């Protein structure tokens, strides 16, 4: 996914990998799974679970396309450790599988985080 010196890689499962910037200000994640339901209703339920997150505010949660595939984009803000953070998540389906590419970042590093996120989305390949 994203290889850069100073990033820590955590693999929770073969289909769930996270990279965290050395200073902890950016976190990238990629996941895959079997498609079990339509994307938007699934993400809407997931978004409901975030309503208790400190400082949570939804910016958007909407249908989209990614590389010609049905997708959902979710963007939001929240507080982490009392500091403002931002989240952007892309979920899409292809060939009976779902994929998720996510970035969470401190507002102070937005430009860097969005550049990295764009790079990951452009270079992401499905199995």
Task: Give structural notes.
The chain is of the alpha+beta class and 127 residues long. The protein has one domain (8-123): Protein Transport Mog1p, Chain A, CATH 3.40.1000. It is 20% helix and 50% strand. It contains 2 helices and 7 strands. Strands 1-2-3-7-6-5-4 form a 7-stranded antiparallel β-sheet, with helices on both faces. The model has no long low-confidence stretch (mean pLDDT 90).
In short:
The protein is an alpha+beta fold and 127 residues long. 20% of the residues lie in helices and 50% in strands. The longest helix has 14 residues, at 110-123.
Tags for this entry?
50% strand; 20% helix; single chain; 7 strands; 2 helices; seven-stranded antiparallel beta sheet; alpha+beta; Protein Transport Mog1p, Chain A; 127 residues; globular
Secondary structure: elements and pairs:
Blueprint: E1 8-13, E2 16-20, E3 26-34, H1 39-49, E4 57-66, E5 69-80, E6 83-94, E7 97-106, H2 110-123
Antiparallel strand pairs: 1-2, 2-3, 3-7, 4-5, 5-6, 6-7
């Amino acid at each position: 996914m994203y290889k850069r010196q100073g990033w820590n890689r955590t693999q929770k499962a073969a289909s769930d990998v996270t990279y965290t910037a050395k200073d902890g200000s950016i976190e990238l994640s990629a996941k895959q799974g079997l498609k079990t339901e339509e994307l938007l209703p699934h993400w809407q339920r997931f978004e409901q679970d975030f309503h208790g997150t400190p400082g949570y505010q939804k910016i958007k949660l909407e249908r989209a396309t990614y590389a010609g595939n049905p997708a959902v984009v979710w963007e939001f803000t929240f507080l982490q450790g009392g500091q403002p953070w931002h989240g952007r998540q892309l979920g899409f389906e292809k060939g009976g599988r779902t994929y998720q590419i996510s970035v969470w970042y401190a507002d102070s590093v937005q430009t860097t985080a969005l550049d990295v996120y764009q790079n990951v989305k452009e270079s992401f390949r499905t199995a």
